Automatic annotation (TrEMBL), chains A, B:
This is Histidine--tRNA ligase. The keyword Cytoplasm applies. It catalyses: tRNA(His) + L-histidine + ATP = L-histidyl-tRNA(His) + AMP + diphosphate + H(+). Residues 435-459 are annotated as: Disordered. One of its GO terms (biological process) is histidyl-tRNA aminoacylation. It holds the Pfam family tRNA-synt_His. The lineage of its organism: Bacteria, Bacillati, Actinomycetota, Actinomycetes, Propionibacteriales. Its EC number is 6.1.1.21. It comes from Mumia zhuanghuii. Keywords: Aminoacyl-tRNA synthetase, ATP-binding, Cytoplasm, Ligase, Nucleotide-binding, Protein biosynthesis. GO terms for cellular component: cytoplasm. Residues 24-347 form the Aminoacyl-transfer RNA synthetases class-II family profile domain. PANTHER family: HISTIDINE--TRNA LIGASE (PTHR11476:SF7), HISTIDYL-TRNA SYNTHETASE (PTHR11476). It comes from the Bacteria.
Length: 459, 459
């Protein structure tokens, strides 16, 4: 068979890069669990009628068909999920009787979209979502919690600086209504285009919605407000628009950014940014977007918000607030450009050398002693000259080579566990006992490295 | 929307059960990495021509089609992978220039098969595979390594006893050839049916392959041999058949079971079982199957073997040896019958109670102090009566409730971090400082429990 070629839009990682991804996924999981978010996984497929409830995305769905389906049987009636929100809403309804509300969950899974691949857009990609969902009522402090947990999860990642931008749809809707717009939602849809169109084009569209020049100016002035703290509130009020929903939105957004300013974050900033609207219709309050510095063209890599009706089974309504991190969208462009990888391509911290094939059980016994103390270890594949075995380790990035004592006897005997261990980076070699020696903690697992120093530091 | 119903063959877990699954997956990953196996993930889809190379399984493939594919565009030309071996072989060829051989990898992913669902057979399920693949030549000690690593990975799992059964196709082929069979592969295919057909039917089929009654008796006698050590060799030789390939097979199998008998295992036994053939054609030496005690009707839950030609790009041949654990097939029947779950439905070890809504920042600060020391913590959703907050914890299985000191001042102040913590199982309540107190290690994460005591112990 000829060498296979990659499938466009379906990224795959080499082992060293996969370690970097795993490091990020582990950090996310750890943060989510520290905050009490429970792990769930949903099946990869949903019935087509579920997937098509939001009309906008139907073009992107992959439909499944059994290859050997009976004549006329057609599609299997299911498609691959394109996000983790639709499956989560279905999961909540299906298992509502067995879940405790408010229900915090995180979900890290692949999703699929049949769209045209381009940088930052994939056909298969990993998302990491957190949501809190309640029965009937979900207090606003959960919006603050969701933002805090995701900001902490993004903090300290081996990636360029991240800018979380927060806004509130009540603030926008209230402002447009207070301004006199007859259809505030229509104004929001226009203003959502502000990054794509020049100001004059926006003014023209606003004029079509019956806003005069002064009103349009205020819309543009509102969208220009961005502050790292609650001071946005004074700037909004200075525009002289008033409305009860606007007040509510200002109050919520101020609470959120104030709470976030108390959280210690590394490489993550949180800004009230009144330009953010999120195109999708179901958000009803808080909305989030996140930019990656230097990679703004990727679009938002972490987005979400509050939806008063995540799910509804006729008896109960389930409001939710959540945020979704595009893990693949964040990491793959960095990996592809050499900004992110790991220090080795194998988990092994130690390669136990092999004197000859007969002494393999002895080398295995040494390796087993090291593993018993949590040190990832492999044994050389063949009893080549030691120089070749060292190069074997070098090519994989394994930092230590263990040379068993030559001519030792029974692998179980204590003297057999002794030998010499060489740090092949420095060349330092010391006598050691496999029951006692450990590498420095930093060498125990592959280290994530950021070779082009995007943040001025390795993690 | 009405309450959704489950999709047959697509199992989903509740949070407590997912913790049990995660515990198993973490244990597998840790074991594989301790032995130097690198993590990879392959995309979920493969080109149809790749998937259909092995003719037998084509009926099970799910083909993908873009819902909005242009008229006449048809299928997307890809299908969901039905195992992790076909994608791994493709990955090896595609990335051969960037991999170091021998290449050890583990891969834990979902796979899909469109077959009729029944107990132990799913349409979507998780597999955990380990393989070693080399260029041109792969010494036999890797067969021993693969068996050892998977036996260790299965050791100590919270499941009923597992019986790994090992055989060697060279032994079988050599035996049938030494016996005088003109088509040893045909005999192997007959003998592979030994669990499904009575002995007389097997004899009849053997007769059709031109074996006389004495020869057939020897085939049946060979299939009856099973020993926990290398003593099978004498029993095979006592049948009076000789052939060089038989000798090679005996030697390999003896090496393997001897090496495994040196490994300390908990709840796992390894047996040379000369009945095992594995139906699929590509195995060329060692073969593995695994039974779960009390669940034999599920079939083998962990299978694999040696294939001299895992992949082939025209210039190089890549031999491999590997084994695949059906994680879903192992766990879901246990979970469904109440044999396996976890002690709580949330990661939180502590619920910080809430005196009133105004003191939420104080309760948050306490929670944050606990999290900073790795203690999963959540804050009560609402300032209900303490009795209600305790029941909130109880329903989720959270073992500790933290009561902040009433009337304390600034959340940053030290006295604020003090309070009382109650073990709600025993009712014991003590004064504690959020910067110092920790739960016992066993309470830190949800404990895996085996309520029906399938192994006489909880893990």
């Amino acid at each position: 068979m000829a060498r296979p070629t990659p499938l466009s839009g379906f990224p795959e990682l080499l082992p060293a890069d996969r370690f970097a991804e795993q490091h990020v996924l582990d950090h996310l999981r750890r943060t989510f669990e520290l905050h009490g978010f429970a792990p769930i996984e949903t099946r990869a497929v949903e019935p087509m009628d579920q997937l098509l409830r939001k009309g906008e995305i139907d073009k992107e769905v992959y439909v499944l068909r059994r290859l050997q389906a009976a004549e006329g049987e057609g599609d299997a009636g299911v498609g691959l999920h394109f996000d983790l929100t639709v499956p989560f809403a279905r999961y909540v309804l299906e298992h509502a009787g067995k879940l405790e509300f408010p229900f915090r969950r995180y979900q890290i899974q692949k999703v699929w979209r049949g769209e045209r691949p381009q940088e930052g857009r994939f056909r298969e990609f990993v998302q990491a979502d957190i949501d809190v969902v309640a029965k009937d009522e979900l207090p606003f402090h959960f919006d603050v919690e969701i933002a805090t947990v995701m900001a902490e999860a993004l903090s300290g990642l081996p990636v360029p600086p991240l800018r979380i931008q927060v806004n509130n749809r009540k603030l926008l809707e209230g402002f447009y209504r207070g301004l006199g717009a007859s259809d505030p939602a229509a104004i929001m849809r226009v203003m959502d285009k502000i990054d794509k169109l020049p100001a004059d084009a926006i003014r023209e569209l606003l004029a079509k919605e019956d806003l005069d020049a002064a009103q349009a100016d205020k819309c543009l002035a509102l969208a220009a407000i961005r502050t790292p703290d609650a001071s946005f509130a004074d700037q909004v009020r200075a525009l002289g628009v008033s409305d009860p929903l606007l007040d509510e939105g200002i109050e919520e957004l101020a609470q959120l950014v104030s709470a976030l300013s108390d959280v210690e974050l590394d490489g993550v900033t949180v800004t009230a940014d009144l330009r953010i609207a999120r195109g999708l219709d179901y958000y009803t309050g808080t909305v989030f977007e996140t930019e990656l510095e230097g990679f703004e063209s990727l679009g938002s890599i972490c987005s979400g918000g509050r939806y008063e009706k995540l799910a509804d089974d006729g008896r109960n309504v389930y409001p939710g607030v959540g945020i979704s991190l595009g893990v693949t969208r964040l990491l793959v462009p960095l990996i592809a450009r050499g900004h992110l990888t790991a220090s080795r391509s194998v988990p092994s911290a130690v390669l136990v050398a092999l004197i000859d094939e007969e002494s393999r059980p002895a080398s295995n016994a040494i390796a087993q002693r090291l593993r018993a103390r949590g040190i990832p270890t492999e044994v050389a594949a063949a009893p080549q000259k030691f120089g070749k075995q060292i190069r074997y380790a070098e090519r994989r990035g394994i930092p230590y080579v263990w040379f068993p004592a030559a001519g030792a006897g029974d692998p179980g005997a204590d003297e057999f566990q002794r030998g010499q261990v060489k740090d092949i980076r420095s060349g330092d070699q010391v006598y050691a006992d496999a029951g006692l020696w450990s590498p420095p903690p930093g060498d125990l697992r592959p280290a994530v490295i950021t070779p082009l120093d995007t943040r001025g530091a390795t993690s």
